[in-house]
Design a protein that fits this description.
The chain is mainly beta. The protein has strands at 3-7, 10-12, 18-25, 34-39, 46-51, 58-59, 68-73, 78-83, 92-101, 105-110, 114-118.
Length: 120
């Protein structure tokens, strides 16, 4: 079965950190750009990373640049998102997804997501 399964979400205080993980099954990640997007209630989907399968270059939006770091481990078929200096506006469901960089970022296939809640 082809799927992406996220884990590692939870609650954090402002300024805290969380690390999300995602494991792929039924296909190998090394052929795909892979990243994360988030969706908060009543808000549009927002891309937060996309790692190139070709050279490992990673795209981030300004809203998370310098705070979030995405990484991939093709040997383990996993992708991670280290989130530091979290802010309340980071609260959302985070999905890992295959992605394309063209006129911004687009996501094609994603998992069910993991909830991240940032509050004091």
């Amino acid at each position: 079965q082809v799927q992406l399964v996220e884990s590692g979400g939870g609650a954090a205080q402002p300024g805290g950190s969380l690390r999300l993980s995602c494991v792929a099954s039924g296909f190998t990640l090394d052929r795909f750009n892979i990243g994360w997007f988030r969706q908060a209630p009543g808000k549009e989907r927002e891309g937060v990373s996309c790692i190139s399968s070709h050279d490992g270059d990673t795209w981030y939006p300004d809203s998370v640049k310098g705070r979030f770091t995405a990484s991939r481990d093709n040997g383990k078929n996993t992708v991670s998102l280290q989130m530091n200096n979290l802010k309340p506006e980071d609260t959302a469901v985070y999905h890992c997804a295959t992605c394309r960089l063209a006129n911004g970022v687009e996501y094609d296939f994603w998992g069910r997501g993991t909830q991240v809640t940032v509050s004091s």
